[in-house]
Amino acid sequence: MTSNLEDQLLALRQEGEAAIASADTLERLEELRVNYLGKKGQLGALLRSMGQMSAEERPKIGAIANTVKEAIQNSLDQQRTVLESAQIQAQLESETLDVTMPGIYRPQGRIHPLNGIIDQALDIFVGMGYTVAQGSEMETDYYNFEALNTPPDHPARDMQDTFYLPDGNLLRTHTSSVQIRHMEKEEPPIRIVAPGRVYRRDDVDATHSAVFHQIELLAIDEGLSFTDLKGTVKVFLQAIFGDLPIRFRASYFPFTEPSAEVDLQWNGRWLEVMGCGMVDPNVLKSVGYDPEIYSGFAAGFGVERFAMVLHQIDDIRRLYNSDLRFLQQF
């Protein structure tokens, strides 16, 4: 029986080593380990028959069994090393980038002309000590009109045809509402610039849109005068358009007094580009400022207007159509 069991052990070794050498995956290798060396594997089944041997036969067969087990385990370890190395190499090859291959072309993005004007204007005002302020596009009648010296029966409301909402609120017609909310929270001195989208019931054509963008500035302090306003506006406009002639014409806005329109001489003709004025004392009172102590000025302009002048755009609708042929010019 000893000779028969010895032959079976040696045959198991040869069979196992051959099967392990041909294993091509780590999963297959684990199946072979369980088949040969597991608790219910072939080697264990052969060793359980040793209970029928004499005490003299067991040490010899035990030594052979240990040799077989070590041989199969060594074969498993060697094949596992080979397979793991191959797996790593395959992963490296699959993840390797060929730097000699041509790249995939992705067109470079460009700044929209409206965003370009806004960024440029904010940079100028921030450089003059102003802080950027933002506000909600949906407003109450109080902040959009009444606090800006425009009561319900004021004729100035006819100047701005408004989008009213079912709840009684409205879409802001200017960014001046940002000024009121800011002044309610802060004490002078104040210097802010407020960019944003505004809404009016305009008929859409080459020069008008129901949705457009404004930038307004506000300065409140002791002793500010119209001279300070003119100097600020002149510095800003010349930073945008260059050293061109500028003039101020008397005008009317309900929230400034006195008020003015600002014209710029562009390509030999005068263009209206801004509105401005000294903050009306009633506006200062509405936010709790004493007009006997504080004064201020405000100014605003349409971003689309600036973009159309600077880039010689003939139709405001081109700014909203997302036509790449148009946008790629900038």
Description:
It catalyses: tRNA(Phe) + L-phenylalanine + ATP = L-phenylalanyl-tRNA(Phe) + AMP + diphosphate + H(+). It is an enzyme of class 6 (ligase). Belongs to the class-II aminoacyl-tRNA synthetase family. Phe-tRNA synthetase alpha subunit type 1 subfamily. The protein has 330 residues and is an alpha+beta fold. The protein has two domains: 2-95; 113-327, 2-Layer Sandwich (BirA Bifunctional Protein, domain 2), CATH 3.30.930. Helix content is 43%, strand content 20%. It has a seven-stranded mixed β-sheet with strand order 1-4-5-9-8-7-6, sandwiched between helices. The chain has a two-stranded antiparallel sheet with strand order 2-3. β7 (256-266) and β8 form a beta hairpin. α1 (2-22) packs parallel to α4, α2 (26-37) runs antiparallel to α4 (58-95) and α5 (113-127) packs across α10. The longest helix has 38 residues, at 58-95. It starts with a helix and ends with a helix.
Give the arrangement of secondary structure elements:
Layout: H1 2-22, H2 26-37, H3 42-48, H4 58-95, H5 113-127, E1 131-132, E2 138-139, H6 141-144, E3 170-171, H7 176-185, E4 190-199, E5 211-221, H8 226-241, E6 246-253, E7 256-266, E8 269-279, H9 281-286, E9 295-302, H10 303-310, H11 324-327
Parallel strand pairs: 1-4
Antiparallel strand pairs: 2-3, 4-5, 5-9, 6-7, 7-8, 8-9
